[in-house]
Amino acid sequence: MLEQLSQNLEGVLKRLRGHGRLTDANIAEAMREVRRALLEADVNYQVARDFITSVKEKALGDSVLRSITPGQQIVKIINDQLTQLLGGDAQPLNLSGSPAIIMVVGLQGSGKTTFVAKLGRRLAKEGRHPLLVACDVYRPAAVEQLQVLGKQNDLPVYAEPGNQDVLGIAQRAIRESVRYPADVVIVDTAGRLHIDARMMEEVQAVKSAIKPSETLFVADGMTGQDAVNAAKSFQEAVQFDGVVLTKLDGDARGGAALSIRAVTGKPIKYIGVGEQVSALEVFHPDRLAGRILGMGDVVSLVERAQETFDVAEAEKLEKKLRKNSFDLEDFRDQLKQMRSMGNLTDLVGLMPGMNRLKDVNLDEKRLTRIETIINSMTSLERRRPQVLNGSRRKRIARGSGTSVMDVNQLMKQFQMMQKMMKRFGKMNKRQMLKNMPFGL
After folding, report:
1. Which ranges in 86-137 belong to alpha helices (H)?
2. Cβ-based neighbours of 409, under 8 Å, separated by 6 or more
3. Helix (H) or strand (E) holding 416
4. Which H or E run includes 188?
5. Region for 104 from its dihedrals, namely left if φ exceeds 0, alpha if ψ lies in -120 to 50, beta otherwise
6. Is the Cβ–Cβ distance between 308 and 337 less than 8 Å?
């Protein structure tokens, strides 16, 4: 997420921290580099200029220039200004009304339909009862896509396949919501590949008829300034309440994230950080600012872990550690849980200072290969790895499409992990938490 911007800013800030004393000249030079980094990340020109002006005004104050640690002071100023640029505080959804109605708008291809399912899943986990409404009736298979996502996540979907009366579908869905019963109705509206008058008239008519408590504009974080321009057009026509940024796990420059709040004046409420339906985060401006400046985001990391790891399973694992009976089935289960938290590179980026480890190989395919090897074993072999002789290892390699060397390497890593787990098993809970490394 915004990796190139983070690396560029890190270099500038490192040089600033290296100065024992700051002057007008080296602050001005640093601000030029920060401005260049923002523009290279596709941040809106006016937004970048205003940001630099505000940082420079605060950085040239006597309290910074005379500070014992002036470099650190400027890092704090940049962090604070980034947080303000991104909106200051997290803004919750407005779920007033019975049912609460959320209307989702945006261009085709922005990830709008997937976001509707992601939001529905998130609200369901929070104890709400959402109903998804398929009003994207022009894009081929959009209705079917929402129905499939709804079924996969146990979310009801109201759809009228073949009917293109968008206004009627939305109104009937709201009336029918009492039958499910649903206390939140999420309406997926139709998009286009580009802004056109017909689309705007349609979303205006739907909004006027259903009177949503919240209208969310979905922007593709990989499209840069195009996303900002689309947001301005939708804001003028529909007056949305908040922004959702999708595909922020991609390798795009991502400057839209820093521009869209300043340009539209509307808060970013959610960010999509992966393709899985679980990959949706509430947007916290201070956390993203921390990620960009290499400070990590431990709070988001802990929240992901809490959502992913089952308490009962964790207790069962702890008992196994106490008995020194950690086996390959436990190893496989831990790998699955860790991978379900999201992309490994993204997870490492949440850890303070870890963005500096640019040469670390985080190969997702390697984890898949490990799982395949373990799945090719019999249950006896997974529970009692000591029985794995040469002939068994050859069979496992053939069955998993790997080599004996791969199987041997896995077993070597597992034996090292067993030793580590044996050490943990002798610790009390406090010592275990203190010494446990992230992941397996």
Report:
1. 112-125
2. none
3. helix 404-425
4. strand 184-189
5. beta
6. yes
End-to-end CA distance of the chain: give it in Å, rounded: 23
* CATH numbers and ranges of domains, the chain: 3-85 (1.20.120.140), 100-295 (3.40.50.300), 303-435 (1.10.260.30)
How confident is the prediction along the chain (440 residues), in pLDDT tens digits per residue?
566 777 777 777 777 766 666 677 777 888 888 888 888 887 888 888 898 988 888 877 655 555 546 667 777 888 888 888 888 888 889 999 889 999 999 988 888 999 999 999 999 999 999 999 999 988 878 999 999 999 999 999 999 988 989 999 999 999 999 998 999 999 999 887 777 788 888 899 999 999 999 999 998 877 777 788 888 888 888 889 999 988 776 555 567 667 888 888 899 999 887 788 888 888 888 887 877 776 544 444 555 555 555 556 556 656 665 566 778 888 887 777 666 666 655 555 554 444 544 444 455 677 788 889 999 999 999 988 889 999 999 999 999 999 999 999 889 888 887 777 666 555 544 444 444 443 33
Q: How far apart are CA 87 and CA 286, in angstroms?
A: 9
Q: Edge-to-edge strand order for the sheet containing 242-246?
A: 157-158, 130-135, 184-189, 100-106, 214-220, 242-246, 268-272, 280-282
* Phi, psi at 187, each rounded to 5°: -100, 115
Nearest to 304 by CA among 317, 292, 287, 321: 287
Distance CA 110, CA 49 (A): 28
Cis? peptide before 352, omega within 30° of 0: no
The CA distance from 21 to 96, in Å, is 53
Contacts of residue 214, defined as CB under 8 A and 6 or more positions apart, other chains included, come to: 93, 94, 95, 100, 101, 102, 103, 241, 242
Partnered with residue 242 across adjacent β-strands are: 216
| Residue 428 in tokens | 């009390």
